[in-house]
Q: What sequence folds into this?
């Protein structure tokens, strides 16, 4: 065999061995040690990559959960996910109260009759820059479903009868993606309150009552009756609009009963308490007897 070929093969083999050794030592020198629990936590997360936590993805969040014991965790996780992660990390599972998204608008097709027809791009963000709404309310739901498109869990759908988005309580994870998608800030994450129901103001119109009632039958007029009857002082008034503090509210529903326009909302509807019976009118005979007795007394005096 030609000596040149042999030398070439030996040289290349030696060069390859030397370079391999160099790469090995460099890799050992600069290798990054990663906690093996990160992959386990990432598998325990829902894996939706919805972005509700503000991270790039579920694995990025797993790194945060493992490295920061004070981090509260994924807003989408249910109790099962939380318990599994706590078991992996050897921590006490955090108790999470169920929550759901609510729509602070009751206008739609029924309570805010359309005065115009929008035929442009069917997008809330686009329509919001061009008009008030088909019913005329500058604060109401536009009904084009930007929130439904942002939901990764198929939990929001437009009700064809009302034209308003409704959340499926079984699917909603309260991730908050829909709240960010709404250009008018009409969606809010609140406690689910499966036993008592959740109370909130179904209106965001900050106009005075004389104007808001012209564009919606159930708008808040800022009368303050709800705040006066609330035993928890959970209701505040600002900019002609009431707001219910979710942490103070006990869902007694006194405000729902007192609201003259029915803007105060209780959901689900089957949790609404029956209306208190109105006091019976005074007996007619007694009311007629009083003037008669007064007349007799006058005649006797004369």
A:
């Amino acid at each position: 065999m030609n000596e040149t070929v042999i030398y070439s093969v030996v040289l290349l083999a030696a060069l390859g061995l030397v370079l391999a050794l160099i790469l090995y030592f460099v890799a050992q020198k600069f290798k990054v040690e990663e906690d093996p629990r990160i992959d386990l936590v990432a598998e325990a997360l829902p894996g939706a990559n919805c972005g509700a936590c503000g991270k790039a993805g579920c694995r990025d969040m797993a790194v945060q959960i493992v490295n920061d014991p004070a981090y509260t965790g994924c807003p989408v996780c249910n109790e099962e996910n939380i318990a599994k992660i706590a078991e992996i990390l050897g921590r006490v599972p955090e108790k999470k109260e169920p929550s759901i998204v609510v729509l602070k608008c009751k206008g739609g097709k029924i309570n805010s009759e359309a005065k115009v027809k929008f035929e442009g791009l069917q997008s809330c963000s686009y329509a919001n820059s061009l008009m008030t709404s088909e019913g005329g309310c500058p604060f109401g739901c536009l009904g084009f479903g930007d929130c439904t498109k942002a939901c990764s869990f198929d939990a929001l759908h437009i009700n064809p009868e009302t034209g308003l988005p409704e959340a499926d309580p079984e699917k909603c994870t309260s991730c908050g993606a829909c709240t960010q998608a709404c250009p008018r800030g009409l969606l809010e994450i609140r406690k689910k309150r499966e036993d008592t129901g959740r109370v909130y103001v179904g209106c965001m119109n900050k106009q005075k009552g004389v104007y808001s009632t012209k564009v919606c039958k159930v708008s808040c007029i800022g009368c303050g009756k709800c705040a006066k009857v609330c035993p928890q002082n959970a209701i505040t008034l600002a900019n002609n609009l009431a707001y219910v503090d979710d942490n103070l509210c006990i869902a007694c529903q006194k405000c729902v009963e007192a609201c003259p326009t029915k803007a105060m909302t209780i959901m689900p509807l089957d949790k609404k308490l029956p209306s208190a019976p109105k006091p019976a009118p005074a007996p007619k005979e007694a009311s007629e007897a009083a003037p008669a007795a007064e007349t007799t007394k006058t005649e006797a005096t004369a």
Summary: The chain has a mean pLDDT of 87.
